[in-house]
Amino acid sequence: MSHKSISPRLTNGSLLLSLGASALLAASCKTQPETPRKPNIIFILADDMGYGDIQRLNSDSKVPTPNLDKLCDDGMYFTDAHSNSAVSSPTRYGILTGRYCFRSSLKKGVLNGYSAPLIETDRPTVASVLKNNGYQTACIGKWHLGLGWQIPDSARKAAENNVLFDRELSFTPNDVGFDYSYIIPASLDMPPYVYIENRTVTDPQMKDIEKSGNERGLFWRGGKIAQSFSIEGCLDRLAEKAGQYLTKQSAEKQPFFLYLPLTAPHTPWLPAERFRGTSGAGTYGDFVAHVDFVVGQIVATLDRLGMSDNTMIVFTSDNGADWRPEDKEKYPHEANYIYRGRKSDAWDAGHRVPFIVKYPAMVKSGKSSSALVCLTDVTATLADVTGASVPEGAAGDSESFLQALKGSNAGRKEAVHHSINGSFAVRQGKWKLVNCSGSGGWSAKDDPALPPVQLYDMEADPGETVNLYDQNPQKAEELKALLASIIAKE
Question: Which of 408, 395, 399 is nearest to 362 (CA)?
C-alpha cells in the first residue's frame, strides 16, 4: 500500500494539538499488550534412531551428537516418551491423526512404496488442524503412508511394474492438510526411489536397480529408481529442500508448520563421506552423526533468518533403533540405552524414543521431564500451543502435554504400545503389561513354555528383566482390562 505524504500546512496551534494527540496515541499504544505471535513449528522425525544414540541422553553413547545435545540444553528433553508403534507406518499415522494406528486398516506390519493411502480421506490431521488455524503447512521427507499412484485398471494386480510415473498422483500429503509436499514414497530401502513434489514425480524417467547384497546395514530392495535419484544423497537433498522452504517462509507473515520426516538412520546406512569413521558405532553411528548435522543445519538456518525465538522445534524418532545383539558385540554402543529389545518389539527398546522440544517463548532451557507422553499427543499439544481447535471426534488418542512443557511434569496416565506383529502392551504409572510371551517383534518369538503375558515394574526394572505376572496376577488382570477398554474405543 502506498502512503501519500501529509501536507505541512498547519498553524502553530494545530501543530501542537496534532503532536500532543500523537503523543497520547503513542502512549496509549504502548500500554496495550501485544498480541502474541503464533509460533512457527518444525517437527523433525528421525527414522529408526534410538534413545541411547544422543550423548545428552546417554553419556556412554559412542556417537558425536553436538547439535542434538545443544537442542537438549536449549530446550526440554523427555525421558519417558514413546512412539505409538514400534515400526514406521503406524507411528506416522498416529503422529498425523492423533489416533492409534490399530484403529485403522493397518493392524500389523508396515506399508510399502506402492501401497494405497492409509489415512482416511475425511480424517483431520495435525496439518489440517493447523492449516485451518492460519498456518502454511509443508511435508518434506519420508512419507510411508500410501499414495494414489496412477495405474491402468488392467494392471492393478501388478501395480509395481505398471505405475504411470509421468501422471499426477491422485493422493499425496496435499490431500490431508499439507499445502506443500516434497517426499519419497516410503523408507529409503523401498522402491520406487523417486521424489514427488506435490502431485508430480520430479523425474519420471525410470531405470531398474538391483537388490543390495547382505552386508549389515547396506540393504535396499530392487525396483524402479528415477534416473537422477541418489540413495546416498537423499538425506542431504531433503535438508536442502527444508532450508529452501524456511528461507521462503521467512519472507512471509504467515506462521508455518513443517513436518520433516528424515530418512535416516534407517537402512541403507549410507552416511556422506565426511561422516564416515566419526563415531564409535560403525556405519550406523556415522549415519546418526549425519542426522545430527542435518538438525544443526536446520537450527543454523533459523538463526540466520532471525526466526529462532518464535519457532518451536520438536525432534523425535518413529521407533527405536534396529540395533541387534551382533551390533552390540562389535561396538560398545547401546543405541537403545538400557531398554530391552529393538525396533519392532513391544519391549521398550521398540518404542521408547528421544523427544526434545525447543521453544524459547514457553519452554525453559536445560530442563528434562519424566512425564509419560506418546507421539499421538502431537495434535492435541500443538492445538493447545497455537490456540487451534480440533474437530469434534478427531484425534481421540491425543492428549496434550502442554503443562509438561511449562514445567509441571504432568503427562498421560496410560499409553498403549503396538509391535510389528500386532501385539499390544499397555503402560500405566510404573506398571507395564506386555500381552504376549515374546517380544512381539524380531527379538523373541512367543514361547508356549512362558507365561502368556508379561508384567514389569518399570521404575524398579526399566530393562524388563523380571516378569512379575505370577507374583501379581491381580495387577496383570487390571491392566488387561484397561488395555481391552482402550482398544474398544473408537
Answer: 408
